[in-house]
Amino acid sequence: MLHxxxxxxxxxxxxxxxxxxxxxxxxxxxxxxxAEALETLGxxxxxxxFPISSPGDFNSVVEISKLVTNPTVCALTRANxxxxxxxxxxxxxxxxxxxxxxxxxxxxxxxxxFNSTREAILERAVxxxxxxxxxxxxxxxxxxxxxxxxxxxxARMIEAVIAAGATVVNIPDTNGYCLPEQxxxxxxxxxxNVKNIDQxxxxxxxxxxxxxxxxxxxxxxxxxxxxxxxxxxxxxxxAGNTSLEEIVMALKVHQSLDLHTAINTxxxxxxxxxxxxxxxxxxxxxxxxxxxxxxxHSSGIHQDGVxxxxxxxxxMNPEDVGIDQSEIILTARSGRHALKHHLVRLGxxxxxxxxxxxxxxxxxxxxxxxxxxxxxxxQLMGAKAEENIRNGLAISTLQVTTGDQETxxxxxxxxxxxxxxxxxxxxxxxxSATIKAIEKITGKHIExxxxxxxxxxxxxxxxxxxxxxxxxxxxxxxxxxxxxxxxRASANAYLDALNKFIELETVNY
Length: 509
Ligand SMILES: CC(=O)SCCNC(=O)CCNC(=O)[C@H](O)C(C)(C)COP(=O)(O)OP(=O)(O)OC[C@H]1O[C@@H](n2cnc3c(N)ncnc32)[C@H](O)[C@@H]1OP(=O)(O)O
Ligand SMILES: CC(C)C(=O)C(=O)O
Fold this sequence. Notes:
Layout: E1 9-12, H1 28-41, E2 45-49, H2 55-67, E3 72-76, H3 81-90, E4 97-104, H4 107-112, H5 118-133, E5 138-144, H6 151-163, E6 168-173, H7 180-193, E7 201-206, H8 213-222, E8 227-230, H9 244-253, H10 268-279, E9 296-297, H11 300-308, E10 327-328, H12 336-345, H13 355-369, H14 374-383, H15 385-388, E11 394-403, E12 406-416, E13 419-426, H16 430-442, E14 447-455, E15 464-472, E16 475-483, H17 486-498
Parallel strand pairs: 1-2, 1-8, 2-3, 3-4, 4-5, 5-6, 6-7, 7-8, 9-10
Antiparallel strand pairs: 11-12, 12-13, 14-15, 15-16
Helix pairs in contact: 1-2, 1-10, 2-3, 5-6, 6-7, 7-8, 8-9, 11-12, 16-17
Bound molecules: acetyl coenzyme *A (ACO) and 3-methyl-2-oxobutanoic acid.
Residues 17, 76, 142, 144, 170, 172, 174, 205, 207 line the site of 3-methyl-2-oxobutanoic acid.
């Protein structure tokens, strides 16, 4: 029945089981956006809803059926005629419709949910499949709570529903009860003991109550299941479902399993963000594959390892899941390699930096601030330029007079190797006077190509950040400066750029 015996069909139930999460209900237009993205992702089946549950859900199944082309559109029902009639009606525009019907299979459910017997429930299961078969060809049967069901009874039920026309048989671990070995053994048992099992695809549908949903689904696939039911970000009833991104990437990373899906993995991260925003379900930072920290390294030994060879600490390429690149986060646990990496990225000539000196001051700031961003580093480098950058130029004093009735004049003292060098210049404003005074000291013609002033937090007493791009001998250099005084911030930015290229022996004092 399957063309490729190693192909795993991905059945996405974000819009049905995922949407059962309290507070995550979606409108039909929102569901359509997600359904379209799921089609682009390459899922094989979209479980679009439970049509009998509400007019809104019915309408969503209708609209998704009209919208998508390639994936099968599936609608959930209980094992009764009313639900099945309603699902069939909702699916009437689907190019590939599937009805997903079923009933409890564990003694717990049979006794305490249905107050019934094994035989009576088996009969209802068969009747439901036969009835659904009257509407569509593709019928999936779910044996709810199969994780806790007796295997021998479960096998009888599965054999009977396949004989009645089920094309897919879903073996849900509804309560996330099983251990991977137990769940794998259950699928193996069905493969070996259901006579007509080759006439249907076995599907795994695992919940995450013990954090084992992905492991259990994998165990099921390794034992012969060929469809996996999952949700984006693993959302779903209680602790959630198998996470689509985890199962897909586990199969991709472990090529030796020789099982593959048709998922375009580069869509995983963008879709995770879309679902999280629309369903108001934040993704935990350490969530595998799509969490904020999944490709972020913050401790020095790991950062050094990643910078030397990414695979030292990454088993996947972030680009494969749609994340641009791994991140090296600067914290007090970072080492010199990570610090150096960021300084080089920001344009500092590392051979001119006293790294040990900068590192000590970096640690003090990181202990206080937890995580350092680019602006923190730039400020750190600008604040004590002379100590940070070997033979760097730094402002000792700056005196500026300006006003609308007088020509702006700047007198600046720049220190170098413990000696101050002074110059005075006029300009058409206080910044231009200051830059000209610095030019007099260096004796270089340096063109300023870009010059931006930002306030960091807002407010007139704020710290200003200046970024400046200068060109010298046909090369561009960025400089950054910080100060509560915008003239001084501008001078700091200019000197920061100069410190990246100017040869100090040639400075014209
Ligand atoms: C494991 C899962 O995730 S299953 C899917 C769960 N999702 C949902 O329940 C969301 C949608 N549900 C709903 O909108 C509503 O529960 C409805 C419309 C389905 C039913 O609403 P109500 O008719 O008011 O019944 P209610 O939900 O209170 O109780 C469920 C009834 O369905 C029966 N039932 C439960 N599962 C099945 C089944 N698979 N097949 C047949 N009957 C079932 C229960 O025994 C109970 O019947 P009873 O009234 O004879 O005791
Ligand atoms: C309806 C079935 C497939 C289900 O969601 C479960 O058993 O968890």
